[in-house]
Design a protein that fits this description.
41% of the residues lie in helices and 22% in strands. It contains 16 helices and 18 strands. It has a 6-stranded antiparallel beta sheet with strand order 3-2-1-6-5-4. Strands 8-7-11-10-9 form a 5-stranded antiparallel beta sheet, with helices on both faces. It is elongated and about 105 Å long. The protein starts with 26 loop residues before the first helix and ends with a helix.
Length: 552
């Protein structure tokens, strides 16, 4: 399922439908802190873009942003999957997220939240459904914005994803505060700026056509640990070394002296700062007659940015490694473990069919234990393999006829229906937008559970119905079985969660976990209503007209 970049038109935002956006109690101080960073309206930076890309990868959403909330707007230092650089603050989800700096704000379905149900991003063609934003909080407690993700499908995030989102927001805070410290240091060092020192943040020099230093700023002197008198009038080659000048600096400087802009990145060992990566730009300088008289070289220290980028790359590499480990796990399940289990099952079947009568009653009982255990292990491996493969499944939404799927279920579950004298009922039902293969798995798991967990002496009946409510299709799978106690209903979707021993009911506790994961892959959810002694009703909630379908 592909997502395109989200976009909007400011002219179409119907501000009258909105609730007035709230303001933090410390709003004046918060704005002063934000403006003091000097980050607003700066150029994109790779470190922030990598954070957005990582947030999108971790949360599986089409859009991820590094958003800063200004007085009347939210401005994006980085945006992945969204073209705009800013939006009005009045329509910003992030203006609500910064009200609670200590936690990630998660809105699983924006349509159901009165704060956002009238938001034009929700009601308009953007059709935003899900939002999660981790506040970017400074050390002195000001929430400046968020690292946030947006989806066009209602969904949830697991605790690991929420924790990762908070860590990325903390990383943004570190980057911003590092820039702030550097700015403050530069301000103290440059009370009187020279003509070349328009910003104390960068190293700046003016070099004439003979490669001689004519002007330098204070930052340059601070990095090199020298005085202006020691630099002015000296040739570059004498200062930086002949080899570095000839192989790295001179080719770029010659371009500038020929009228071109040029740039390069190099690692320089500064006497007062140590080894630092710098990005240098060369710009030609012309006199009033248009003649080139020299070049300005501006070098920016990007060592900390490089360090952060390396950390992000390590994080991405770790995610890739875990993906490879998952693939290896899948291989082990499907090959290395399945083969010995099949061998055990095959030979126990032969023993039962050919030699059971030769065994003592005790040996026959032991053999039955081996046979049932082997069969359970085979089913468990099948379910585990199915569960881990869901993460690599590409969801393909198409109209699905529920009645046709039920016909397949009747074939798949025929032996179980015959053994339990049960039945599955499904009258004419509307089609739903879903991945047919995955929906079949959900219905099969829920129907088989409804048949297995029957009341003693009561033939099991499973009914499958579909209703359209509030813009979603609800697929109900109801049974007349033993039901589930209220205190257990929240836990039944956890992996390997069993409420009964195998003596009474078979299974391995993975089926409902698979159902929940499939619902999440559709951008939906699954719920249960049950009364002990009367039966259960499981409901799969799917968007009736998924936004993803409109993006195709």
């Amino acid at each position: 399922m592909r997502h395109r970049g989200l976009c909007y038109n400011l002219a179409t935002l119907e501000m009258s439908t909105m609730l007035t956006h709230p303001l933090p109690a410390n709003e004046p101080q918060r704005l002063a802190r934000l403006h003091g960073l000097g980050i607003l309206d700066t150029l994109p930076q790779k470190a922030f873009d990598d954070i957005s890309a990582l947030a999108r990868l971790i949360c599986g959403t089409p859009v991820a942003l590094v958003s800063l909330v200004d007085q009347d707007r939210q401005w994006f230092k980085s945006s992945v999957g969204m073209q705009e650089r800013e939006t009005p603050r009045a329509v910003a989800f992030c203006s609500h997220a910064i009200l609670e700096p200590e936690q990630v704000m998660v809105v699983e379905d924006l349509r159901l939240d009165q704060r956002f149900s009238g938001n034009p991003f929700v009601t308009g063609h953007l059709s935003a459904r899900f939002y999660a934003g981790a506040p970017i909080v400074t050390a002195d407690g000001f929430a400046l914005g968020t690292v946030c993700v947006i989806d066009q499908q209602a969904r949830t995030l697991h605790p690991g994803q929420l924790d990762a989102l908070q860590r990325l927001a903390s990383l943004v805070t570190s980057l911003l505060e590092h820039e702030s410290v550097r700015i403050e240091e530069a301000r103290r060092q440059h009370e009187q700026l020279t003509a070349m020192a328009i910003s104390g943040l960068d190293l700046q020099v003016y070099i004439d056509t003979q490669y001689v230093y004519q002007h330098v700023n204070d930052t340059f002197l601070a990095y090199w640990g020298c005085t202006r008198e020691q630099i002015i009038g000296r040739k570059l080659a004498e200062h930086v070394g002949e080899e570095a000048f000839r192989t790295i600096i001179q080719p770029q400087l010659d371009k500038a002296l020929a009228g071109e802009h040029s740039s390069y990145t190099r690692k320089t060992v500064f006497p007062a700062r140590g080894a630092r990566f710098v990005e240098a730009a060369m710009l030609p300088v012309r006199n009033a007659r248009g003649e080139i008289t020299g070049a300005v070289m501006r070098a920016q220290d990007v060592q900390e940015t490089r360090t952060r980028e390396a950390q992000l790359q390590q994080t991405v590499a770790l995610l890739e490694q875990r993906t490879m480990e998952q693939e290896r796990f899948i291989h082990i399940i499907s090959h290395d473990l399945r083969e010995p289990i099949n061998t055990v099952n095959n030979f126990t079947s032969l023993l039962v069919s050919d030699h059971q009568q030769e065994l003592t009653p005790t040996a026959q009982r032991y053999l039955s234990f081996v046979q049932s255990g082997g069969q359970r292990m085979r089913l468990l491996l099948d379910d585990l393999l199915h569960f881990v493969r869901l993460g690599n499944h590409i969801v393909e939404l198409r109209p699905v006829e529920i009645v046709r799927l039920v016909d397949q279920l009747l074939e798949d579950l025929a032996p179980l229906l015959k053994r339990l004298d049960g039945r599955i009922e499904c009258l004419g039902q509307p089609t739903v937008m879903a991945d047919e293969t995955l929906l079949h798995i959900v219905l099969k798991n829920l129907a088989s559970n409804g048949l297995k967990f029957a009341r003693r002496g009561v033939p099991p009946v499973v009914r499958i119905t579909v209703e359209h409510v509030d813009g979603e299709h609800r697929i109900h799978v109801s049974d007349n079985g033993i039901g589930i106690a209220a205190e257990h209903q929240r836990d039944i979707f956890d992996m390997f969660k069993r409420l009964h021993t195998r003596t009474h009911h078979e299974g391995n506790g993975l089926g409902l976990s698979v159902c929940r994961r499939i619902a999440q892959l559709h951008g939906g959810r699954i719920s249960v209503h049950s009364v002990p002694g009367e039966g259960s009703r499981f409901t799969l909630h799917l968007t009736a007209a998924p936004a993803a379908a409109a993006l195709e």
